[in-house]
Structure formats: structure tokens, C-alpha cells
């Protein structure tokens, strides 16, 4: 939800705050980007279900804020990738900037869903009014650049009172600006292409944007007309952040055959498999790449590199390139091996020295066990299966995953491929022959995790992990 709750001076906050609370209690948004609230108003709004993040825009932390509320039972906040900045040349310092009338602030958070370990960002702003043309233009460019430069490239949502009608140059810049590196989609217009959406009198000032290039799907969006709690009407959107073929992200710990955990060492030294317990440095995000490989991202936001097998591995790379891409080799149950782009396997070195990606074969030290940090974590990643039968070539993926009543397999040709579904006990629960575009019905399966094994006539195989909702 994006909601300008209106500043309290002369606006009867005491008389209207019950309506604000009613709107939030009735609609139960997971996350709210608010504008114009003072700290004591934010304290009232958050109630018992929400945690509030942000600060007032003034240098003493007073004044209006772009506070963000989130359900603390569902989400954790990544403080290292959250903060505020001002719309001014030295944006990290508080104070008056491009708008000569008011301090203008943007607050952003990275939230992590507790049930899956998946993260996303909210950037929440309140722009200068339409008469401040230069201030608005500079603010829009700073905002999209900060979004584009976010450290971890998780899905991102922008909420705000942008004081911009739909024909405004700022709205056009967000959507189609030639120098905008993150062209945006208005989620309300995804659902209502040509009508409605007025949030301030007879105009639309408030928006929930997502990157146009993303596969984020808008399931629903509305403006709340009643009750009236402010001079603005709140707007909400229900979003699927994992729609289409978005790379899936899940969080795991990795344990060597010595019973110790692999540690990122916060990227400051060689990684070791020598930790007795799993703390932050021993937790990794698994990022699925479109080519069927995966990358490991440490709690410092950096990626693990194989170093081409020539030196101990580090978790210090800003982006995943060839050395930061691995193949996941299933060894049964939660056991797996990690193969680098050099064709060699990662070894725990029995925890006695820095791990290397230099072993030609899988032995005891090259065998690891993974465990999800949060229940419900899932992936649609294609996994390389250790087999004498070979591996199906091609960029394959299950979608949707998680799935409810059916799934499809992208990347298949016209030839029929056998699809066998096994539960985690190895029991065959479904079998079929599928070609490109065909659905595989799973409505009769109970909720849980399954393995989908594809087999061709020549004996090549490929295995996927499927989550049934």
C-alpha cells in the first residue's frame, strides 16, 4: 500500500486517525509506504502487527517522514541494505536540497520473507510539488539511479506520493525516459489500463511502481474510497514477485562431511568449512541463473567465486560472472556436490584450509549437505544429475514453481519426454509423457517437495525440484 496520511497541523488528526487505522486493519497490507506522517503518528499507525522503519526528514530526525511499515511476523529487515537519503546533491546528508520549500527524503528497506528467505526492496518517496520542475526532475533521476545501484538485485517496488499526474513529465520519465536505467510500470494500470485510480481529488498522485522489465505480476490493485482518513486516498496492489521465469532465490547452510559449516568469512579472507554452528556468515542465498547454473551470495551481499580453482575461494565478487557460476550435482537426499565452471569440484579440504574448486572427482570431502534456513524455501533450478545415462541439454525450467494444480516445462522441443515425479522418499507418485506447452496435472498431490525426473528415449536425464502448494 502507498498512503499519504496527511500531516497533522490543522487537519484534525485525532478525529481521522481511527479511519486511517480502519483502512489498514481492513485491508491488512504486508507493507505500507507512507508519506507526511510524524513519528507519533507512525507510532499510532503501526499498532501491534507492524514494525516501522524510517526517520523524520529534518536533521534532528523530527518532521515528516517517508516511514515504511511491515508485518514483523512475516518479514525480517536487512539493515545493511536499508536506509534513507535526501533529494539533494549530497544525498546522504540531511537538509534542504533541490526543493527550496521542504526537506525531501526517500526511505528504503530490504525485507526478507521469513518463510522462504527471499528478499525484496521497497523505496518510498514524497516528491516536490509540480511547480518545482527542476527539483522533481533531479529527484526522479536520483531515485531510479539509487534503485539501479542497489547492492543485491532482488525484486524492487517503488511507492510514493509523486505529486505527478499521469500526463506529467515525471510520470513519463519513470515509464519511458531515455536516460532512465530502470523503466517502471504502474501496477494500477496493469489492472485498470485506462480508467480510475484518482488518489487526490480528481487526479492520480500516488503510485506503486515496479520495473517494467521484471516478471513481477500484478494480481489486483485498487484505490480505497472509504472511509476517508486523509486528503489522499490510499492505493494498494497485490503482487507476485516470483511470476514467470524470475530466477528463484532461497537461503541455505552448507555442511561438509566433517560436520562443519562452510563460512563466507564475510568476504575478507579465504572461505573455510570449519564452523561448528551456522550464523550469518554461514548462510548463503542460492541464485538461479537462466543458463541452469546457480550462484552463491553471502550475507555481505557478495558472490562466491571458484577463483578458477587456482587459489582458495572467496566471497567477495560484486556480480556473478563465469567463476561465480556453479552446477548443482545431486547425490541423493540433501547431499550434493558443487562443480565450478572449470569442470572441477569444490572440496571442503576437511576444514583444515581454505576451500578450493580443484578436484576432478567427487569424494568424501567434495560431498556437502544443504539445509534451508527458512521453511518453504524453493527453487526451480535445473540440477545436474550424477548418472551414466547423460544429461539432457537445453535451458529447461519448471513454471510455475511453486505450483498448485499443474506445471509446464519450458525449453522442450516437440519430442515427447517422460516426466516421472518422486516424493522425497523415492516413491514414484506420477508419470506422464510431455511435449512443449503441455500441462502436467498435480492437483491430486499433497503439499510438499517433489523431484521431477525427465528422461529421453536415448536415456539422457534431468532432475528438478518442485514445490507443490
Automatic annotation (TrEMBL):
Domain Secretion system C-terminal sorting per the UniProt entry, residue ranges: 398-462
Superkingdom of this protein's organism: Bacteria
One protein family per Pfam: Exo_endo_phos
InterPro entries for this protein: Actin-crosslinking (IPR008999), CCR4/nocturin_mRNA_transcr (IPR050410), Endo/exonu/phosph_ase_sf (IPR036691), Endo/exonuclease/phosphatase (IPR005135), Secre_tail (IPR026444)
Domain Endonuclease/exonuclease/phosphatase: 1-232
Name of the protein: Endonuclease/exonuclease/phosphatase domain-containing protein
Organism: Marivirga lumbricoides
Amino acid at each position: 500500500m502507498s498512503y499519504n496520511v496527511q500531516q497533522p497541523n490543522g487537519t484534525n488528526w485525532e478525529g481521522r486517525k481511527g479511519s486511517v487505522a480502519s483502512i489498514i486493519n481492513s485491508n491488512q497490507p504486508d507493507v505500507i509506504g507512507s508519506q507526511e506522517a510524524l513519528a507519533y503518528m507512525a507510532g499510532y499507525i503501526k499498532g501491534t502487527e507492524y514494525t516501522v522503519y524510517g526517520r523524520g526528514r529534518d536533521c534532528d530526525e523530527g518532521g515528516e517522514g517517508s516511514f515504511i511499515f511491515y508485518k514483523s511476523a512475516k518479514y525480517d529487515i536487512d539493515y545493511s541494505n536499508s536506509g534513507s537519503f535526501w533529494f539533494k546533491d549530497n544525498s546522504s546528508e540531511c537538509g534542504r536540497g533541490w526543493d527550496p520549500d521542504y526537506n525531501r527524503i526517500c526511505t528504503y528497506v530490504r525485507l526478507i520473507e521469513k518463510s522462504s528467505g527471499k528478499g525484496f526492496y521497497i523505496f518510498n518517496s514524497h516528491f516536490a510539488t509540480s511547480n518545482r520542475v527542476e527539483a522533481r526532475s533531479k529527484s526522479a533521476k536520483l531515485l531510479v539511479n539509487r534503485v539501479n545501484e542497489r547492492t543485491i538485485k532482488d525484486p524492487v517496488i517503488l511507492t510514493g506520493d509523486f505529486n505527478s499526474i499521469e500526463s506529467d513529465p515525471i510520470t513519463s520519465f519513470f515509464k519511458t525516459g531515455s536516460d532512465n536505467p530502470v523503466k517502471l510500470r504502474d501496477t494500477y494500470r496493469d489492472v485498470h489500463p485506462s480508467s480510475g485510480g484518482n488518489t487526490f481529488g480528481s487526479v492520480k498522485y500516488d503510485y506503486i511502481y515496479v520495473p517494467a522489465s521484471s516478471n513481477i505480476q500484478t494480481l489486483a490493485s485498487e484505490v480505497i474510497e472509504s472511509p476517508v482518513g486523509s486528503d489522499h486516498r490510499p492505493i494498494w496492489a497485490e503482487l507476485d514477485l516470483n511470476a514467470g521465469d524470475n530466477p528463484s532465490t532461497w537461503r541455505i547452510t552448507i555442511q561438509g562431511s566433517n560436520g562443519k559449516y562452510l563460512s563466507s568469512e564475510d568476504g575478507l579472507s579465504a572461505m573455510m568449512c570449519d564452523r561448528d554452528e551456522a550464523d550469518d556468515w554461514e548462510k548463503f542465498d542460492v541464485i538461479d541463473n537462466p543458463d541452469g547454473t546457480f550462484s552463491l551470495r553471502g550475507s555481505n551481499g557478495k558472490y562466491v567465486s571458484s577463483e578458477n580453482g587456482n587459489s582458495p575461494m572467496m566471497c567477495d565478487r560484486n556480480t556473478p560472472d563465469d567463476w561465480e557460476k556453479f552446477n548443482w550435482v545431486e547425490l541423493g537426499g540433501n547431499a550434493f556436490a558443487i562443480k565450478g565452471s572449470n569442470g572441477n569440484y569444490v572440496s571442503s579440504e576437511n576444514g583444515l584450509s581454505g576451500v578450493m574448486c580443484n578436484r576432478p572427482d567427487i569424494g568424501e570431502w567434495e560431498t556437502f549437505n544443504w539445509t534451508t534456513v527458512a521453511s518453504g524455501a524453493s527453487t526451480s533450478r535445473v540440477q545436474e544429475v550424477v548418472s551414466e545415462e547423460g544429461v539432457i541439454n537445453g535451458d529447461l525450467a519448471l513454471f510455475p514453481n511453486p505450483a498448485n494444480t499443474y506445471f509446464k516445462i519450458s525449453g522442450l522441443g516437440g519430442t515427447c519426454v517422460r516426466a516421472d515425479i518422486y516424493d522425497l522418499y523415492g516413491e514414484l507418485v506420477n508419470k506422464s509423457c510431455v511435449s512443449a506447452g503441455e500441462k502436467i496435472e498435480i492437483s491430486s498431490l499433497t503439499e510438499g517437495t517433489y523431484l521431477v525426473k525427465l528422461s529421453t528415449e536415448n536415456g539422457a536425464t534431468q532432475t528438478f525440484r518442485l514445490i507443490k502448494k
